[in-house]
Amino acid sequence: MKLTILGCYAATPRTITNPTSQVLEIKNRLFLIDCGEGTQVQLRKNKIKFSKINHIFISHLHGDHLYGLIGTVSTFSLLGRTTDLHIYGPKGVKEIITLQLKLSNSWTTYQLFFHELESNESEVIFEDNKVIVKTIPLKHRIYTNGFLFQEKPGERKLNIEAVQQYDIHTAYYQKIKNGGDITLDDGTVIENEKLSFDPIPAMSYAFCSDTVYNEAIIPIIENVDVLYHESTFLESEAPLAEKTLHSTAKEAATIALKANAKKLVLGHYSTRYEGIEPFKNEAETIFPNVLLGNDGVTFDF
Amino acid sequence: MKLTILGCYAATPRTITNPTSQVLEIKNRLFLIDCGEGTQVQLRKNKIKFSKINHIFISHLHGDHLYGLIGTVSTFSLLGRTTDLHIYGPKGVKEIITLQLKLSNSWTTYQLFFHELESNESEVIFEDNKVIVKTIPLKHRIYTNGFLFQEKPGERKLNIEAVQQYDIHTAYYQKIKNGGDITLDDGTVIENEKLSFDPIPAMSYAFCSDTVYNEAIIPIIENVDVLYHESTFLESEAPLAEKTLHSTAKEAATIALKANAKKLVLGHYSTRYEGIEPFKNEAETIFPNVLLGNDGVTFDF
């Protein structure tokens, strides 16, 4: 699992920082999460292949998470894309995109599918044979979802030595990989765990931005491998965080701790701060495993 | 008169080039012309004061001229702007902007005035005591206007030696500056040109993008000081220019020649070309005074 931060600063794009957008590579799938202005250029800078992106997830309709979407959708067309593109986001995202396509008289060269979200409960919005994506309802000034990306557990690994020792026919290998016990010709039952190893652990990633401190998300993201949680402010600006329905670095760390996350990635920093190191320092007073998100940074998990 | 090119490449933004946007400074007014994605960052890079922009002109609703507008409008709000902002553009621009503001529940901190254009005839869309702006109807795949910015002629300059020689009272100075003749006490009429010098010549700038080769614009832009005319293609791609309703560098130069423009600025280059010098070379076979527009370049006229 690999996370590339295209942008992780709040509010307006600047010459040196970009609004929210990131690419999650999970089980060879590339998911684009949020799409602030300049995302398509950030994709180019980070050498992400446009053609590998088939699913875009939009957390909410504030500009710093959205205003690069129409340009990305249009550029995909200009490049002659023919593969379907799926966009998941709050109700309204379809109208915003289609209105602009209509008025520019430039329809996409590919099929565009909108999956508009309205529920306030966590729901499965994407599922294939390897990955499942669920919403994480967040509390912000407008309707907002985070997204939980989970790998499905893979097959068990065949213990080839053991299998050969019991002289099991290859026809039964898939059954073993699927976790089944094997009954030998003499009626002996060999338990699966004697014939196979555990699969590679399934990874999970939770993207939570933008949100006020909200413990209601903990059951949804519990035991997540990597939690990206917004930290727009430091604790010194806690009243402002509460007022604007954002979080502090300390609050992000508290959610990571209570949710038993393995790692915490910080981001969505207010541009009022000169440097971002203090976010890490503050979070580490609560939670040990903190990574500083930053534009152009890739994390391999 | 000063022109700063923020972006002058066609279609999609890339790491090294930007879609169309430019700032014209004329008589101390700052006009933003077109607003492709990334314009607000280009404004920052070129140290243009956001607060000095009160009028934005949008030629047409293709993304490479428009998709940076909503971000610019939003950032003005985030910076706490209170001054009115006027946006001139094709019918539909208001719906695009207000829909996104509505769905993000983020109204502007300032008054936003839309001046939607529908006419196929040249019309005055802005006028104050120093500058007048007219549309230049262009032929493109969707409804498109260029814009002609004209300084109003200033007052005549007092010829102070002559005025003193005729012993003319200061009360008559403004009349002289306004071009009036003076009658002395003995009934002699002194013609204005003996008492004053011509004013500084009024400058004009015509922005023509995007458009196919179209001689119908010549009467509108005749004798213009500076003509910016799109040259998406070179003559080698003339059939493609015609098909997509764009122009070649040679065609841009032909319009400049026939309109008796003093200078021609080229731009809106297709990103298919490696360098832009060939555009200048091609245009110069037709018209002598060619300037290559390029991102981040400022011309003082």
What's a concise summary of this model?
Chains A, B: The active site is at residue 64. The structure is a homodimer of 301-residue chains. With 301 residues, chain A is α/β, with parallel strands linked by helices.
Integer-rounded radius of gyration of chain A: 22 Å
CATH architectural category of the largest domain in chain A:
4-Layer Sandwich
Number of H/I helices of chain A: 11
* Secondary structural class of chain A: alpha/beta
Q: Note the main sheet of chain A.
A: 7 strands, mixed
Write down the oligomeric state. homodimer
Polypeptide structure, described:
The structure is a homodimer of 301-residue chains. In chain A, helix 3 packs across helix 4 (93-103) and helix 10 crosses helix 11. With 301 residues, the first copy, chain A, is an alpha/beta fold. Chain A folds into two domains: 2-154 and 200-300, Ribonuclease Z/Hydroxyacylglutathione hydrolase-like (Metallo-beta-lactamase, Chain A); 157-197, no CATH class. In chain A, helix 4 (93-103) links the parallel strand 5 (85-90) and strand 6 (112-117). In chain A, the strands form four sheets. Chain A has a seven-stranded mixed sheet with strand order 6-5-4-3-2-1-18. A seven-stranded mixed sheet of chain A has the order 7-8-9-14-15-16-17, with helices on one face. Chain A contains eleven helices and 18 strands. The mean pLDDT of chain A is 97. Chains A and B meet through helix 1, helix 3 and helix 4 of A and helix 1, helix 3 and helix 4 of B.
